[in-house]
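Input sequence (598 aa), recorded before submission:
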Amino acid sequence: MNARIEDYALIGDEQTAALVGRDGSIDWLCLPRFDSAACFARILGDEDNGHWRIAPKGADTCTRRAYRSDTLVLDTEWETGEGTVRVTDLMPQRERAPDVVRVVEGVSGRVTVVSTLRLRFDYGSVVPWMRRSDGHRVAVAGPDSVWLRSEPAVRTWGEDFGTHAEFTVEAGEQVAFVLTWHPSHEPRPPLIDPYEAVRTSVADWRRWAARCRYDGPYRDAVVRSLITLKALTYAPTGGIVAAPTTSLPEKPGGVRNWDYRYCWLRDSTLTLNALLAAGYQDEAEAWRDWLLRAVAGDPADLQIMYGVAGERRLPETELPWLTGFAGSTPVRTGNGAVDQLQLDVYGEVMDSLWLARASGLPTKAHMWSLQRALLGFLEKAWRQPDEGLWEVRGGRRHFVHSKVMVWVAADRAVRTLERYPELRGDLEGWRTLRDEVHREVCEKGYDAARNTFTQYYGSAGLDAALLLIPRVGFLPPDDPRVAGTVDAIRADLGHGGFLRRYDTDPGGPVVDGLPSGEGAFLACSFWLADALHLTGRTEEARELFDRLAGLVNDVGLLAEEYDPVGGCQVGNFPQAFSHIALVNTALALFGGGGGEAG
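Predicted structure, token format:
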């Protein structure tokens, strides 16, 4: 079993993704979409919950692995007493059906290789019926059907509710396996050429990566982050999932295990900024268009997250048959936070649409009408308490970051009318709203004795999201209250040289309603670097960025959090929010972008 989250690498086809361990096992794969039920769920249980391992006979973890440069094509090598073998893993861009391609190649000597496939539909709970057909192994259960073939054909047999193969490869010899999913009521989809799929995928990814216009320090990390962001995009709609996984724990053995296979509005402005600044206008426009479709409707019904096609109902359910990663239960699908009120998302949507318009993305006819409706709702609702950016489950409060983002919503509406006077709107009313929110936040959300903004009105606690105050333009970077807030957050929320989101330790108010403990939140740590840079401490910011960039695993991926005590990554993986933050901070520090909004 792959013991650490960072033992995994990602492959995907921009509609779903798989995690491949250092032992050569695919331990997580949902088909046909990111949010579909998993057919490999070993990462959240054991081998009987589904996996597919290809490795030399008797071998444990690989000797080395790496993506082919500027691609999502993964090469894993083992050096054994018999010789060296390489396995190339990828999911080619699909025309109709999703395929997993695994090419075994002899590098030297003569190596015996073993393939063990255990398909378990519905998150590891359903054992399919297996049969042979036209040289394939076919697995069927309910709506799911999976076909397995090899080229050239190797002998397979069934044993222990799995499909097994054993064969040898010499230097230069190749054996390709293709696993294809399709709805069980439909005919088998057309076969693909696995070797051509490798060549095409490498060329396609490199062509896409070459569009990156960032050419400063840490370019490899920036490009890898952008490739990861592209891989987490659901191509048919442009939606970007927060992560391809569910229930990877924020604290091993704990209960902070959530489903992140959905699209969060909180990520919208930062995502747009990263894509636009790095030169990916088409992807930025697709994300903007997904955003417009998802949030259409009554502003009072705006959700904090949606499905990859804009679905609204994401009911949270527990899967008791899965023992969880490192014993972390419960394992959940869906996300109950979808029903929360988070006022900050109105600011995120307004900020994103302002950025899209100001950056020259083609406008949509209904875009401004939607923005006016959002402001109309906020004018009535902004004084309400909410659950805040971090989706706390300990009750609503007047979170300062939420109020700041209400100010952002009003500010971006005002700026839009000032720059585009041909648009209609209540300019004076929105200026009044902006001033009123600003005044209240500075009166009720600021602790003058400590010279810092606080997590919520009347709170002594802090919140790393307050680091965004200068970035969104609520206060200028040289305001003493900004510097004081940055220093206070670094002192109070510092964790092993990085940053927690807020205080989860016992002894104070239980803000999130959950047991204590989580790792350093990587996006917040990047925000600290941004804030240090904006407040004139660029050398400190670059030192912090260097430490953060050093946390990526051996193939350049980041989870949601990092545990400085255990020295390991924690949380869902790979995490779009972490990689977006890496790109934006690199652009701010070295590329002339990603700084203060506006």
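Checked by second reader. Residues 594-598 have pLDDT under 50 and may be disordered.
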